[in-house]
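Reviewers asked in the last cycle whether our approach scales beyond single polypeptides. To address this, we selected a multi-component target totalling 528 residues and predicted its structure end to end. The input consisted of the following lines:
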Amino acid sequence: MKDVVEVHNVGMKYQSLDGEITALTDINFAVRDGEFISIVGPSGCGKSTLLSIISGLLPSTSGSVFLRGEKVSGVSRKIGYMLQKDHLFDWRTIFQNVMLGLEIRKAVTPEVTERAVELLKTYGLYEFRNKYPSQLSGGMRQRVALIRTLMTDPEILLLDEAFAALDYQTRLAVNDDIYAIIKQENKTAILVTHDIAESISMADRVIVLSKRPGTVKKIYDIDLTCTERTPMSSREAPEFRYFFLGIWKELDVHVELA
Amino acid sequence: MSNSLRLSPEHKAFLHQVRLSKIRIRLTQLLILVTAFALWEFCADAKIVDPFITSQPSRVLKTIISLYEQGVLFYHIGITCLETVVGFLLGTLLGTLIAIILWWSEFLSKVLEPYLVILNSLPKIALGPVFIVWIGAGPAAIIVMTLAISLIVTVLEVVNGFLAIDQEKIKLVQTFGARKLQILTKVLLPASLPTIINALKINVGLSWVGVIVGEFLVSKAGLGYLIVYGGQVFKLDLVMTSVIILGVAAFVMYQGVVLLEMLLVRRKAH
Ligand SMILES: Nc1ncnc2c1ncn2[C@@H]1O[C@H](COP(=O)(O)OP(=O)(O)O)[C@@H](O)[C@H]1O
Ligand SMILES: [Mg+2]
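The resulting structure, written as structure tokens, was:
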């Protein structure tokens, strides 16, 4: 299979009056078509920075990123971004929220409006189209956020701690939900999380980053024996806890005593 | 989610209680007003206070009627209200515009910061005579006076509103390729609508101050003029009447803005 995303020797140094922060050094990896990648790493190791660089929002200070062989410079249309909070706009209805991306790209046509209706119908949100975000539950809001992202028809989804704001039970349900939608829509996805179990349960491969300056420490191929793979069934696979332990050790988490 | 068809007796009792308490509050409010006016009228009649100095409700009513018969009642009310409305609308509009410019150019915002601080702490009323000399003694000077009072407050308020917006919301629209103008129209302005309406509310109050001070200085027409004139010729009836009309007009205008807010910012309501 072809590589959709190639990250070549990417490094990032932030400048400030207090000095220079090296957030990332020498990041190298590639993502194949249709693959689901998780990136885990201690907080502050540069995970969000890495996603911003891949999306083209932030120019890296060294190295480069290629999307389908094209070098990234500026915000790429191939990318769909999901942030930690759903950031639905409470002054817009669900339908208007879903149309936001196309509105900004000035690409609203009868056809895409039709597609929005279809997506809302497929994912059980059609009857809420004229409601406001505050009237929806956290899980449904995250679903609307995903549809908003899908509306611009991105090839690659970047999810930055996209589930971290949800409570544990909702998060498990939303993991399954979003995973199913991403698979159904045939998207390539990169999920950043600090939840080891979540990273394994959703991904084909898990990339472990070291603490700052972040660099690729290890890449795990997640091979699980389960009949039909979903985040929930993955958690019950016999190999799950080996991956968990391996990544846990790799992350070298310890409580810092003052 | 209440089912209006089948209310439990407890819920009915609760709703009844809420309604009752609301009525009680309204009645008490009314009672205070009526008592105050009755007491005022009585004390003046019984010569406990001197009605020549304190005036009294019946004299106020007579004054209103006589102003009406002279055909100047609505002229003065109209002028003052017009100056106020123009003042607070212009203040809010220009203030928001300047706030947008400051957000747009970080350089300009940094350069202007100390000047804004100075202008904000300066008692703007001190500029009144300057405006009258520059612009001429008329409504224009009065409106500029109200602008001077409300403009800087609005600018600071709206800029703070802009800064309070979650940066991630801006990042979100940037991932769709939004540029500065679209960040403004799709995120900043709609997200700041409650802030802007709030500025409008503050400006209604400030504009009354500006207009009345302006009319004191210009002394040609309006409720402020009637107050100054009444004070000079010792017609306290005229002064009290104007103050009462002013109170009513200010209240009505404020309620108007509250209504506008309900129309524009009702989104969160279920
Ligand atoms: N705009 C910025 N300016 C300066 N330093 C930054 C900036 N953004 C992030 N950093 C720093 O870079 C490091 C990595 O940040 P981030 O990518 O947000 O980490 P993560 O998402 O893994 O928690 C952190 O130490 C953070 O303080
Ligand atoms: Mg982060």
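Chain A touches chain B through 24 residues (CB under 8 Å). We regard this as preliminary and will revisit it once experimental data from Aim 1 are available.
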